[in-house]
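Researcher: Structure for this, please.
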Amino acid sequence: MALGRRKREQQQELWIATGAIDAAPGHVFYQRLNDLLREEGFDEFVEELVRPHYARGGRPGVPPGIYFRMLFIGYFEGIDSQRGIAWRCRDSLSLRQFLGLSLTDSVPDHSSLTRIRDRLPLEVTHEVFAFVLGMAARRKLISGTQVGVDATLLEANAAMKSIVRRDTDEDWKVYVKRLMQEEGVIDEDDEPTDEDMRRFDRSRKGKKVSNEDWKSPADDDARIVRMKDGRTHFGYKAEHATCLESEFVLSASVQSGTAPDTQTLAGAVVDAQVNLMRAGSDAGIREVAADKGYHSNRQITECSEFGLRTYIPEPKSNQGRRWTDKPETVQQSVLNNRRRMSRRKGKRLQRLRSERVERGFAHICETGGARRTWLRGLARINKRYSMVVAAHNLGLLMRKLFGCGKPRTASAVISALQNLFATLRTFLKPIPPQRFATERKWAGIRPGNSRMFPGERCLRFSTGC
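Model: Predicted structure, token format:
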């Protein structure tokens, strides 16, 4: 065989037959997912759902089935931006096959995804989210009786260096320079350096960077929060209500970064119950588990009035509780919650909450590409985030049905099975008779004796000799 050389310059063919193109077999995960969506009538459902938001005539736009599939790809491939999703779909033949696009069809651009997202209201994404839950509910995979609620922080698309005052719209440099002039540190005609302003800002009294005084000029909905790694950044709060038995996320919402946990528990549980009803499930939420940040008299009382049993740890306090100024219903609800948390079931539900709700955050925010958002505004971020969580539920459904919840997992499983079969094929190949004769000779068995040496029976059975 002669040495092959790579072509330095390639001349494009004028005509090429479709059958001459080297087509990819497709990814087994996306093929199974497409079969599942086709079986459930996903394309017909989303087309009827978005029809009122499109004109009757004119040039056809991007099919809604392709749009939502591209958003699902963002989660499965761990891509956090629409530009990255469009490039990945344009580059991969298996993703083209998943989208239903041929080699001559153009992949929707990132700007098309933006226009479609702005066109469709938030209620459409909620209906798609409930449709995915309905796929699991029809297969009896959601119980929905025990729910865990928790929240995490998302990084907003806004920088702390560009903050401005809410009252005067002054940025940091103009504001500090004005303070220096008011205190007589510099004259009005002087221009201080950045080092002088930083030194003055560090030493001045009453320094406070609060959301009441500062805002982002790019995203007014973002709030200054402290991330888990200790950095101060503009961010949002994502809250999940997760089924503790099946791990499906029943409710997912993005709120202001400073929204207190002590005021959002009842809303998350109500949204989860509404989504279960939209999904066609007759399950009713009965028990709610949350961490100690959600503990408040008002929330526990509201959940008790709704018929919910709460399992929320009570924060430690050196002082005893005073009930003289509170209604008897509040005292009874809080004491019942305290009693339930002291039992074995309360500790078990807390372990399930910390394990399964946090695992959902890890899949969605870390490997799913939703920790950092490149959108601005609560409405847009909620649309994007709800579709990422819907893709996460699709992955859970795929894992329960086929054993693989992500394409990388499917590839790893297939590779492991191929290696296992290759190893078994090597180990189980027929052993020549000369080897048995040698083994019998070493075991001290004379030729012609029907007795077998130790392990010969198992060896002959496994090798087929």
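Researcher: Any notable elements?
Model: The chain has four domains: 24-120, 123-156+227-315+326-386, 164-203+210-215, 411-463. The two ends are 39 Å apart (CA to CA).
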